[in-house]
Amino acid sequence: MEELLTDTRTCPTRLKHAYMQERVEVLREEVRRIVKGSKEVAKILDLVITLQRLGLDSYYKTELDELLHSVYNSHYNDKDLDLVSLRFYLLRKNGYDVSSDIFLRFKDKEGNFAAYDIRSLLGLYNAAHVRTHGDQVLDGAIAFTKSRLTTQLKHLKSSLRKEVSFALETPLFRRVRILETRNYIPIYEMMSTRNEAILEFAKLNFNLLQLLYCEELKKVTLWWKELNVQSNLSFIRDRIVEMHFWMTALCPEFNYSLSRIILTKMMAYITIIDDIFDTHGTTEESMMLAEAIYKCNESATVLLPEYMKDFYLYLLKTFDLIEDELGTSSGYRVFYLKELFKRLVQGYSKEIKWRDEHYVPKTVDEHLELSRTTVGAFELACASFVGMGDIITKETLDWLLTYPELLKCFTTLARLSNDIVSTKVIIWLYTCASTYIFIFACGYIFILSSK
Fold first, then answer.
1. 113 against 393, higher pLDDT
2. Phi/psi of residue 228, each to 5°?
């Protein structure tokens, strides 16, 4: 049985690597036969959630979609809380319209959830986290299950205790996919119901992914060193490894390697630009950089102070290299990336103007209208699209430039999460600082300005 690769410094030989790839192909088809042979609702749901948690579901997207569709239209035991919870979780997660009213049957006469076994409570806890706003049934389910699981945690057996502990820290719906795979493989291995082919496939797939990530990290690290940040931009946060790790969380599959590399580089540039505007550059220097990025050509270098010139030229070079790597059929996508970077620095420039004028936005909407554009999420969305192959069309990128509502929701979430953490850090660091903080009934905290 293949073991998980825990130390990437001891990489397999080329022959071993080739064997791993060949073995994966054999196991992939063996598991495909298992998927196609699944008929009963309970077994289908168990198989789907297992493949998702082991990071294997992307190999069987069509087959799993068909299985979930059959589950949606099939009769099932609606008195089994564990089964009901798993069905609800998987269907709602995959876009099916399923009502949380199904859980009302598990409440007593007083409207409280009755006591159930730990496995069922864990299933309900995870299912409840795919709730929508104002869903009182699932709100109550979270409160009940969290309390009960926390109380019972220390009395559980090792494998179940580990799974419950993970869930209480981060519900299943919110977990980083690649980390969930790493954590779940040993849990699955301890199960008496495990399938050996699925387990071996999961381990090999994970190990091959780790080797690919190491190759990507080598490329972006060499690229970062060539940028020579430590000499030219010593004030910049040196976090290239962390940035690449974020991108493995965003799109972990094999076929998104180019996207991860482009995303890491663009995230690094966003960090550099943000640090210049936010902490290091003067107002005049920041405005010069904004103008240069808006022009986006080498002639604009004369606008910049000496310490920015190499970075700016390297940014242009990176755009050109990405365009070359994409080829003639997809190179046009870099235009959209440049356009969004221009919008990003326009937003930064407006924030500087607000700062210098001591302007405080009058409403949340006014604050978000600007701060959504400066969180960098649109740029990263575009960067991910740029490297995703033929699945992305020109129409997709045109749509992105319209600031669609879907991505506004995403950027709002990113901005609020960023602001909440920033608020906690500032309060911790500067307990006596005079800071304008708006706290709204919905529970969100925004930092609008500091003195």
1. 393
2. 60, 50
